[in-house]
Structure formats: structure tokens, C-alpha cells
């Protein structure tokens, strides 16, 4: 789903860690050392984001915990690949939580989207109560996001343990982008078929007169 971090995600969480990893490798650093240093920008970025928003960001907290835990385990085990799979530690639990939310009155994708579009929250609540197609759209979007995130996590684990260590960091952002792009198809189709896109997310045209 969308993130409030915007372009900084590409620069701080992807660009800088990759530059640090391959730069340090060129200088003769070990894979584990280069990967550990590459974690630092992401930790700083997540910490700053949590402080600036002054609220509990579950995704941000999960990222921080994953980075710290995977770093500690990788150092203790001396295995760089344990650090490479850290994003799978986020994807798989997130998939479980996403699918489990279908048992609750409102699924996770709806709750998160509603919080991101606060000015339209009242309209979304009204549609949730009155429109069955609206509710079903969000339930199916949640199913797709849950399944896709499971695939994302499994692919990350497979890539981390089958490809050469030096190749894996470059594949990580590719997997992220592919997952997000692929998920836009069922998400957009379901929103448009239910009329949600037009009623909630389409740009408002200025009224005349």
C-alpha cells in the first residue's frame, strides 16, 4: 500500500544502502560488514519518521525491529545471508496479519487506507455501512495483498539463499517494485468495478458558479 515516506524511500532506504554495500565491497570489506553498514541509513530514516509523526507507526516499528533483530542474529551467527532475508521477516508476518484481519469487522487494507485519506474517512465509513459491493471490494483487495505478500516473502528467502550474496542486495528493490506494481492491477480493478475509485479517490472537479 502507499507510504507516506515517498521519494525518500528510494533514496535513503534503497539508494544509499546499495551504494554503501557495493562501495565497501570494492574497498575490500566483508559481505557481513558491508551489509551491516548498509542497514544504518534505514534505521536512521525509520527512527526520524517515527519521531516526526509522533505516533505509533506499526510498519515503521516492524522495519526497525526487523533491522535490529536480523543484524544481531547475523553478527551472532556470522552469516551474511541471515541479514539478507530481513525483509521476508516483515513480508510474511504482514501477510498473516493482513489475512487474519478478514475475520474482523473491517479488513486491514480498508483500515490503513481510511487512515491515509482522513478527509474522506466519513464518506468511506458511510459506504462501508451501506454498500455491500464497497465492502466486498476491500475484502478481496485484502485477500490479494495477503497472498502477494506471502509470495514476496518466499521469493526473498529463495533469492537470498540461492543467488551469490553480492547479487542479492540489488534484487531486493526489484522484488519490492514488482510486488507493488503487480498488486496495483487487482487493487485498481476491484476499486473501479465497485465504483469506489470514482466515489472516493477520483480527483474532485471544481464546481462552477
Automatic annotation (TrEMBL):
TM segment ranges: 7-24, 30-51, 58-77, 83-102, 143-161, 173-191
Keywords: Membrane, Transmembrane, Transmembrane helix
Top-level lineage group: Bacteria
Protein name per Swiss-Prot or TrEMBL: Intracellular septation protein A
Keyword check for Transmembrane helix: yes
Signal peptide: none
